[in-house]
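Give me a protein, keeping tokens residue-aligned:
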Amino acid sequence: MSAKGDVTRASDQESWPLSIQRDIVVYTKNGGIDVTTFNRKVATIRQHLARRPELRWALICEDTFWFAVGFLALSQSHKIIIIPQTNQLASVLTAQVSVILTDQPACYATTVATLDITSVPEFEAHENMGPDLDLSISIELYTSGSTGFPKRVNKHLSQLRAEVSELETIWGEHLGSAVVLATVPHHHLYGLLFRFLWPWWMGRPFYAPTCIYPATLLEAAGRFDRCVIVSSPAFLTRVADFRIFRPVSSYPALFSSGAPLPIDTAKKIATELEKSAIEVYGSTETGGIGWRTWSRDREDLSWQPFLSVETKISGHSWKEPGHLLIRSPWTCCDDWVDTGDMAQHLSPEKFLLCGRADNIMKVEDKRVSLTEMEQFLITHELVSEARIVVLEGKRMTVGAVVVLSKKGGEQLACHGTRAVRAELIKMLRACYDPILVPRKWRFVPVIPGNSMGKSELERLRTLFME
């Protein structure tokens, strides 16, 4: 291991650190990248961007190291940074970009002009970072919307900086110089803030690869003395035994966001890891709203707003559920924002979430409007009626109950259930994330309903029971 202060480069595999080195900005699978090397990469891309007239740049990098380099270079070049919701081509086209800055140019070469961030020739640059970031620049983010046309959310870099400052105020002293490891992507607001901007702005190293599996997370964590885990309920529910991450002193914090953590999983983490997960509640539109931790002493499911966040319940008296409205320095507007969630105030400092105000659910951290999918499905010539339900089990899945049209019935008779199902799945996959496409299908002559003619959720779910 290199002594503290030595230059450690990504190509020096034998220099892989066993403890934190403060001169390291980011760790890759091959080793640490020091401040000098990192800043030279940013300066190289910035110099190239200075010769380009295009204003709207999509930043699509699988590797968080290259994403960080591109983000900072674009910020210093006064470009508009567009971060599509996923790396799918539909998201890129929706964003109406001028150029794509990417570490995977082959994926987008036939769609939009691209610049391969990994192949820009280096030049001799000064060690310093270069010009300050332009905090007034626009960042275009996209919600985890239910269709292939997610909603655009405009933010200024200054808003992201304000949110980072709040996170550091609450948890910074506790985290110290721990390396930040993540199981979530950096192209969502949660990942952008927690796995890149927060550690970078505060001089805390971050780990570039995304730890997709518990085994890869454990392997990465084992290489550092102390590390922060930035994760999601979808990942954490798949960890069989959190005792493999002991000792607890090696993990100053475990963050989870994207959806409420299942109570059983929260209990499991607190018991086996001997440390409660810190759940963060918010959205792309609102930014962070509040946080909570599971207490083994008492079952408290309430949320505490962040210091700069104001909350109120719309149209209801004190302690009655209503629409949760919030206002903060990092929302997409200066006025009160309706979160779309129902909530109940327990005290001026605490609130309890009471479900969605509309028919929107989250599956594996992806938000889906059940009504919208139903309306989309019935546009197919084979479908007359449709109901979409979320099925709970070891994992959440989506099920579809379909009444076929006359033509759909003929197709079913001629080609069978599998062929009809495949045709409908093909249609949905063109506009929906694969995890949201129904995996279970039931073709029925009539939608089950009650005496009022309205379908009942439990009666729909019984159709999927063994």
In short: The chain is about 25% helix and 25% strand.
